[in-house]
Every structure is written in C-alpha cells, then in structure tokens.
C-alpha cells in the first residue's frame, strides 16, 4: 500500500510505490504460444501457395525470361518468406509436442472417463 | 560472411547455423514473452489486442533476429524487442485512431494492511494512478510502463525509445513529478 508524504502544500502521493503496485507484470495466456504457432503455419501455407500458383502460371516466354537474373527477385522473396516461417514453425512444433507429452496423462484420464460415461 | 548491416533471412542460412538460430530464438521467446505481453497489455488495455501485438512483435523479431544478435555485440536484446512492440503499438493507435483503455482488471493492490477499509482505499489509489497514467503524454507513459511493469533501467529504456540516457532520466523524472502533482491537486480539490 502506498504512503502519503506530508509537504508544505499538504499530502502528496508516493507515486513510485503506487506505480509498482499498479503496473505488475502480466502473465500471458497459455493459448498465446499455440496461437503463434498457428500464425506461423498460416504464413508458411500462404507462401507455399503463392509460390505454387506463380509456378503454374508460367508460360514458355516467362520461363525464358526467368533465365534473366534480373527476374529472380520474386521467387527468392517467396522462398525466403516460406523458409523463415517454416523454421519458426519447427521450433514451435517441438515445444507443442513437449506440451502434449506433459498433458498425455491428463488426456488419457479424460478419455478413460469419457469411455465409461 | 554477412556484414553487420545486412539482414539474412533465417531460410537463407546454412542448416547448422539455422538450427542454432532457431534454438536461440526459442530461448529468446521464452525469456521475453512475459515482458512483451505485459508491455502490450499496458499499452492497449485489453488481452485480445495485447495477444495480437505480442504475436506480431515476435514474428518481426524472428525475421531480424540474426542481424539483431550480430549487431547487439553481447548487449541484452530486450530493449530491441520492446522497441518493436512499441512501434507496432504506435501504428495500432494511428491506424485505428484509438486511445488506450485503462487496464484496471489487474490493478489489485498488494495488501499490506488487512482491514477492509485499507483494501478499498488501496484500490481507489490504484484506479487513480492508472487513470492519471492514461492521461500522460505517450512518451512519458511509455517510459513508466517500461520502468515499473518491466523493471527496465534507464539505459534499457533509452535504447527502447531511441533516446539518450540523460534524456530518458529526465523523461522519467518529469513523468513521475507530473503524476504526483496531478494526484495531489485532485486530492486538494
């Protein structure tokens, strides 16, 4: 609880103590990591589809044009975006599996109860 | 080898380097998730938007993580990721023309005295300080959130806000003084 200090102008607030009490760290919800994982998956999927659609649309003249290095920017960017998302997805997947392992006992118990009801 | 100014996308790294980068990013994510989320929450005032902001901050951080590590020269990366969240929060308000909502749902006082009157009084004090915090100019509010919610020191806050250490010290001092004067005036009135 904060204290008030007496000054010539009357009582004043111990604002630093009040701020310490009011601005406590907030624990993120557990669903946030799973949600981050889903977002990375969506980004990966979108990048893959973009690359696939783009490849299917290529005509013979476009294929010839692709041999010109000046036209390599788009595929490199698409591959880069997809690869980056995939990398993050991998590490999050590892964490998710870790979570699943730790939750396995509870899930088995819940499943057992359901089968009995 | 890449120069310090060049950002290399994680997918462009050699497999061993990328695996090391991913492990480092996972540690980084675990170490700073609460700080980024707390910062986002106190900026936007609700859990839904705080989750959006936190997610976007880490997505951006991942893309530039390799370069940030190279350029940090061993210094902590917390100011960097908080700065990403800070920029995203500024865009959030600019795009949606919104003001932060005062987050009171977590403003439960730490109870030192146990009588009901003292608890009620403490809650009222916290509501007042949060309301006045909400009315501060953005840079002052930012600095106080970083100091008190995240426990950042002046140097870290200076790096996150892109200011000098001296200017940051003055900013925090003035922010506290403004809050103190406004609350005292309110009490006197």
Description:
The complex is a heterodimer of chains A (117) and B (189). The longest helix of chain A has 44 residues, at 73-116. Chain A has helices at residues 15-22, 31-56, 60-66, 73-116; strands spanning 4-7, 10-13. Residues 5-11 and 101-117 of chain A have low confidence and may be disordered. A two-stranded antiparallel sheet of chain A has the order 1-2. In chain A, α2 (31-56) packs across α4. Chain A has four helices and two strands. Chain B has two domains: 10-96, Orthogonal Bundle (Rna Polymerase Sigma Factor, Chain: A); 136-188, Winged helix-like DNA-binding domain superfamily/Winged helix DNA-binding domain (Arc Repressor Mutant, subunit A). Chain B is built from seven helices and no strands. Chain B has helices at 15-44, 47-72, 78-96, 116-135, 138-149, 154-161, 165-188. The radius of gyration of chain B is 19 Å and the shape is elongated. The N and C termini of chain B lie far apart (65 Å). Chains A and B meet through β2, α1, α2 and α4 of A and α1, α2, α4, α5 and α7 of B.
Overall structural domain count of chain B: 2
Please, what is the oligomeric state?
heterodimer
| Structure annotation, total helices of chain A | 4
N-to-C span of chain A: 51 Å
Largest sheet of chain B: none
- Tally of extended strands of chain B? 0
* CATH fold group of the largest domain in chain B: Rna Polymerase Sigma Factor, Chain: A
Strand content of chain A: 5-15%
CATH architecture of the largest domain in chain B: Orthogonal Bundle
Spatial gap, N to C terminus of chain B: 65 Å
Can you give the helix content of chain A as a percent range? over 70%
Number of continuous helical runs of chain B: 7
Label the structural class of chain B.
mainly alpha
Residue fraction in strands of chain B: under 5%
**Quick check: average pLDDT of chain A?**
65
**Radius of gyration of chain A from the CA trace?**
27 Å
């Amino acid at each position: 609880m904060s204290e008030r200090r007496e000054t010539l102008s009357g009582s004043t607030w111990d604002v630093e103590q009040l701020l310490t009490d009011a601005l406590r760290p907030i624990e993120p919800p557990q669903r946030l990591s799973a949600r981050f994982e889903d977002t990375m998956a969506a980004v990966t999927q979108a990048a893959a589809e973009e690359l696939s659609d783009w490849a299917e649309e290529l005509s013979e003249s476009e294929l010839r044009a692709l041999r010109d290095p000046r036209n390599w920017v788009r595929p490199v960017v698409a591959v880069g975006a997809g690869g980056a998302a995939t990398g993050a997805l991998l590490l999050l997947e590892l964490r998710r599996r870790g979570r699943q392992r730790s939750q396995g006992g509870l899930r088995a118990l819940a499943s057992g109860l359901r089968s009995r009801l | 080898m890449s120069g310090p100014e060049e950002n290399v996308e994680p997918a462009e790294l050699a497999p061993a380097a990328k695996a090391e980068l991913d492990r480092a990013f996972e540690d980084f994510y675990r170490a700073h998730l609460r700080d980024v989320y707390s910062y986002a929450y106190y900026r936007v005032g609700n859990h839904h938007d705080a989750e959006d902001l936190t997610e976007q901050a880490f997505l951006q951080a991942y893309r530039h993580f390799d370069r940030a590590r190279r350029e940090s020269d061993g210094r902590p990366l917390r100011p960097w990721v908080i700065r990403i969240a800070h920029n995203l929060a500024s865009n959030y308000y600019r795009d949606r023309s919104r003001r932060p909502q005062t987050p009171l749902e977590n403003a439960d006082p730490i109870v030192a005295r146990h009588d009901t009157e003292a608890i009620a009084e403490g809650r009222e004090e916290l509501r007042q300080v949060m309301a006045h915090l909400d009315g501060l100019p953005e840079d002052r509010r930012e600095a106080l959130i970083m100091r008190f919610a995240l426990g950042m020191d002046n140097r870290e806050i200076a790096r996150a806000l892109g200011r000098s250490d001296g200017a940051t010290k003055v900013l925090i001092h003035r922010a506290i003084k403004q809050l103190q004067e406004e609350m005292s005036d309110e009490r006197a009135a």
